[in-house]
Amino acid sequence: MTKLILLGEGLEQKGKPSRHINYIDYENPSKNSLIITEEFSLTNAKNEQKKSTRIDLVLFVNGIPFVSIEFKNSCVGANEAIKQLLNHQHPDRIENFYKFIQLCIANCSTITKYGTTLTPSKFYNVFKGKSSDDSVKMLCNNILKPSNLLEFISDFIFFSKSKDKTNKIASRYQ
């Protein structure tokens, strides 16, 4: 899915020249539509209990869910938000939704951590910004700023193949 999001795809038309479609305009970030939804709820149709999963914030780029963000207070901590992000990706929850997600962000009032889908908790990176900014303001002014986000997704997420598994890895963003 990430390959399609990054590279687009060619569409063949019978009797006409093929066309290439890019889902995201990385060259001109302002030409994309970015929308943030709060308390986005989904239900896994395969889950017999039909239990709903709620994500604190989801950032969509051109209608594609790109970023999943969980917030916790400082008493609970960012690691609890990471745990929740990972639980969302479980097959009994909404794992198919996370096939589109490029970046997962865990935030508490004092720290922000980020990773990609299925990144183990110990490999989440700490986002460091200006110490005078609160963590939400720092997110909005840095990594979630449209031009920065699209550059990060296109240039700083890479893949590593180990055994029979391909892992999506987010580089450190500073």
Automatic annotation (TrEMBL):
InterPro entries, sorted: Restrct_endonuc_type1_HsdR_N, Type-I_R_enzyme_R_subunit
Limits of the Restriction endonuclease type I HsdR N-terminal domain: 11-121
Domain of life: Bacteria
Annotated catalysed reactions: Endonucleolytic cleavage of DNA to give random double-stranded fragments with terminal 5'-phosphates, ATP is simultaneously hydrolyzed
Keywords: ATP-binding, DNA-binding, Endonuclease, Hydrolase, Nuclease, Nucleotide-binding, Restriction system
PANTHER family for the chain: TYPE I RESTRICTION ENZYME HINDI ENDONUCLEASE SUBUNIT (PTHR30195:SF15), TYPE I SITE-SPECIFIC DEOXYRIBONUCLEASE PROTEIN SUBUNIT M AND R (PTHR30195)
Family assignment from sequence similarity: Belongs to the HsdR family.
Protein name as annotated: type I site-specific deoxyribonuclease
